[in-house]
Each structure stands twice: as C-alpha cells, then as structure tokens.
DNA sequence: CGTCACGTTGACTAATTTCAATAACGGTGG
DNA sequence: CCACCGTTATTGAAATTAGTCAACGTGACG
C-alpha cells in the first residue's frame, strides 16, 4: 500500500465529520477512503478552479480559506461565498460539465480532490454516501436562500452583523473562539458578498465599534457584545 | 395494470424532456415510470409544502405556477424563485428532512410527486437518473448564484429587465411567445424576489413603457424591444 | 525604509424607500 | 347582470439609505 494512500485516508482525518457521512460501517469507511485521490495545494490568490474549466471533481477544504465569485457578461463580479475547512466546493460545475464560477484561495490552502465519476460510482454502492452528497447539495441551496434573504431584505447594518455572526458560528464549530476572528478577506470582498460598497462595510464596522459591539483593528475583530449583534440581525425594523 | 399508472407515465408525458434524463434506454424509461406515484392538485394560493413540513418527496410541476419563499426569524419574507411547468421543487428539504421554505401556487396547479426514497433507490440502479438528479441540484445552485449577482450588484432597472428576460426565455422554451407574457404574481412578489419595493417595480415598468421597451397593462406585458431590454441587463454601468 | 495595497473618514450625490392618495380591476353575491 | 368591496397597481413628494468621489492614514512586505 503506497504511503500516500495512508496519508490521505478520510477515516483518519480530523475533519472527517465535517466532510463525510457519520454513521457508517467500518467496511464502507474503507471504501470511502478511496474517494480522495490527491491533495492539492493552492497558493494565496491562486484559483482552485476558474469559470470555464472542465468539471471533473469536487474538493473538500483541508486547510485555508476560499472565496467563490461569479462574473456577469458585462464584467461585474459578485462574491457568492467564503469557504473554510471541511466545506465542499465545486458543485456548480456538475450541471454543465464546466465550472461556472471562480474559486480563489484567500490564504495558502490545501484541498482533497474527489473525482466526480468516483463519487457517482461509490454513491451507487454506498447509500450513506449517496444521501450525504444529496444533503451537501441541498445544504448549499438552503444556504443560498439565506444569502438571498440577506441581499433582498436586509439593510447594511443587518447584513454586516449577519456576516460576522455567520463566520463566528462556523469558526466556533471548528474549535475557534466565539469572541474573536481574523478576517481573511478585504473590505471590498466583504462588500461584494453583502451587496455593499467597501466604504459602507468599513463605516459599519466603525459604527459597531463606536457602539461597543465589536473592536476592529484591520482584519482582527473582537466581539464585545454578541447578543447585541444578534439583535441587529433579528431586528424586525426592516424596510421591505 | 391500474389505469392511473398509465395516466402518470413519465414516458408519455409531454414535459418529459424538461423533467427527466434524455438519453435513456426503453428499459430504464420503464423503470422511471415508477418514480411518480401520485399527481397532486394545488389550488391557487395554497401551499404545496410549508416550512417545517416533513420532507418526503420532490415535485415536478405539470401545470401551473409557483413561488417559493423563505422567512427570517423576525418574520420578513423573501421570495426565492418562481417555478413553472417542468421544474423540480422541494430540494431544500433534503438536508434536514424538513422543508425550509414555503412553496405556494400562484394559480391552480398540478404536480407529480416523486417520493425521495424511491428517487434514491432508483438512482442507484439507473446511473442516468443519478446524474440527472445531481444536475438538477447543481442547476439550482447555479441559478441561485445568478440571483445573488442580481441582488448584490444590479440597480433596479437592471433587475426588472433581467427578471422579464428570464421569464420570457423560460416561457419561450415551453412554447410560449417571446413577445408577450402574463405575470402570475403581484408587484409585491416581484419586488420581494428582486429586493425592491412594489412601488419601485411599478415605476420601473412604467418607465420601460415610457421608453417604448414594453407595453404594460396590469399583468399583461408585451415586449416591444427585447434587444433594448437585453442592453439594460448587460449594461456595464453598475454601481458596485 | 519606501512603496503599494488596504482601510478609514468626510462631504456630497443619487437611488430607492416611505408615506400617502388615487385608480383600476376581479371576484362575489344580490 | 351589475354593484360593491377588497386587493392590486399607479403615481407623487418627502425622507433616508447607501453610493460616489476624494483625501488621508497605516501596515505589511519586499
């Protein structure tokens, strides 16, 4: 057995419960270990894949941080999400056999490549994997609906607070502090994701700081009043 | 063989190419005919499913028009899409075994119910169906990204033009005119979907009419200058 | 230690919302 | 069949949010 196969066994990966089905027999787990064929390193600023690239695999993030963005025919861009360890990327490519968005590393990253044809064939043999793949795609759809709600009905303050709370919650699941985070993206990228300009994002951070909700120092954010932020997210004082 | 089984055979359905995989053997097609167990009628204004309902099936629209909407904890709503004949609904429910949005009929409608456990088991036996299901989910994700682009980076005029062109294109595929359409939803529902108020939607329609791009009479819309509308959609004069 | 990308802040502008009044339609029941 | 009522749509004027333009800091990194 080649050494690398051991290295990339999902069964021994600490992120397993984020990427893989949980209730699964030892025998099935062994089969799933053949899903990831390669690890790939992506340097900060470099694409994992780009729009138009042939689709061939899904990727599980092992370390690092990504953004995905779509581009309109006229060139304007929209960040569609920020992805972190344990999350799956590439689902957009299945429908047309080519990727429809760009995935860019916001810091040096490593991903596990899972060839799509292997996912399909293994899914037929391991029902737990089949269900799992469906759930991952469904989760992405539900997440997207949440972003639509944010973009379609929240004001700037609510969007920014929502963004922070979302990051915080996802980082917390991964064992990080609930009270502190380091932003891996620029104000412009946050703005694109939230449908705001970078100035509005910056001003909103400053206002939150003035109000004693957070402490911001560049990309270092400390949460002083999480409940207060949550109140802003849930504030019924919306416009539409 | 019960009469109803004949009635609801996908193999004889005129919408087959919209819902079902195309390149498929006669034997496989016969198996797929067992996917749809029941037809269900939904009266205008009534839900096909609601948030919190147990998830058990996907639905293919046979006739009629739906909207889906999500609701925030504070009660504000966001329309996440409008669905028409041949489109699949219910994917949001897979991840958590319960629906996360409401699906409401905008006119009397009929849907084909496909029990999810049957989809899963048949998918394992018919790879073309497996791939098809994945593509449907991926298409939904790509569609959602398009909506994010619209909500995050387009101005009101662009959103409304984009909305009209999208409806037109989908209706055209279904054999309707490219120059005329009947809106099945209110200005408020359009506004919710586009992240605008109903007044802004109304005003934008009026402006398009003033400019000779369309003719609007309540929910009857005639396209006078499709190219002009497309120019607005693609206009690079965006803000963000 | 300088340069450049990133971030902050201010003043002004423009787009969209909000509030309000009116009009038109469609379904319902007399 | 027609009148009525509630819902839906239009339009105007005022208010507000967020965007734009511009200047200035500041930190990271070579």
UniProtKB/TrEMBL annotation, chains A, B:
Highest taxon of source: Bacteria
Keyword Transcription found: yes
GO molecular function: DNA binding; DNA-binding transcription factor activity
UniProt cross-references to Gene3D superfamilies, sorted A to Z: Jelly Rolls (2.60.120.10), Winged helix-like DNA-binding domain superfamily/Winged helix DNA-binding domain (1.10.10.10)
Cited CDD domains: CAP_ED, HTH_CRP
InterPro entries reported for this sequence: cNMP-bd_dom, cNMP-bd_dom_sf, Env_Response_Regulators, HTH_CRP, RmlC-like_jellyroll, Tscrpt_reg_HTH_Crp-type_CS, WH-like_DNA-bd_sf, WH_DNA-bd_sf
SMART domains recorded: cNMP, HTH_CRP
Secretion signal, residue range per the UniProt entry: none
GO annotations of cellular component type: cytosol
Keyword Acetylation in annotation: no
Name the UniProt record assigns to this protein: Fumarate/nitrate reduction transcriptional regulator Fnr
Taxonomic source organism: Comamonas flocculans
Lineage: Bacteria, Pseudomonadati, Pseudomonadota, Betaproteobacteria, Burkholderiales
Name of the encoding gene: fnr
């Amino acid at each position: 057995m080649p050494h690398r196969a051991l290295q990339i066994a999902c069964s021994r990966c600490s992120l397993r419960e984020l990427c893989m089905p949980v209730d699964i027999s030892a025998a099935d787990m062994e089969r799933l270990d053949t899903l990831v064929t390669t690890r790939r390193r992506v340097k900060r600023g470099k694409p994992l894949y780009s729009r138009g690239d042939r689709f061939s695999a899904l990727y599980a993030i092992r370390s690092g941080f990504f953004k995905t963005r779509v581009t309109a025919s006229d060139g304007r861009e929209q960040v569609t999400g920020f992805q972190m360890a344990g999350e799956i990327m590439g689902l957009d490519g299945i429908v047309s056999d080519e990727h429809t968005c760009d995935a860019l590393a916001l810091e040096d990253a490593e991903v596990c490549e899972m060839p799509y044809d292997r996912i399909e064939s293994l899914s037929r043999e391991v029902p737990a994997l089949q269900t799992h793949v469906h759930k991952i795609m469904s989760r992405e759809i539900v997440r997207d609906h949440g972003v639509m709600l944010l973009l379609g009905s929240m004001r700037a303050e609510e969007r920014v607070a929502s963004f922070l709370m979302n990051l915080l919650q996802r980082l917390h699941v991964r064992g990080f502090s609930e009270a502190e985070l380091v932003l891996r993206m620029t104000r412009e990228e946050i703005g694109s994701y939230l449908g705001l300009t970078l100035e509005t994002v910056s001003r909103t951070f400053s206002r939150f700081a003035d109000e004693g909700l957070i402490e911001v120092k560049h990309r270092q954010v400390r949460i002083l009043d999480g409940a207060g932020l949550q109140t802003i997210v849930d504030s019924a004082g919306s416009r539409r």
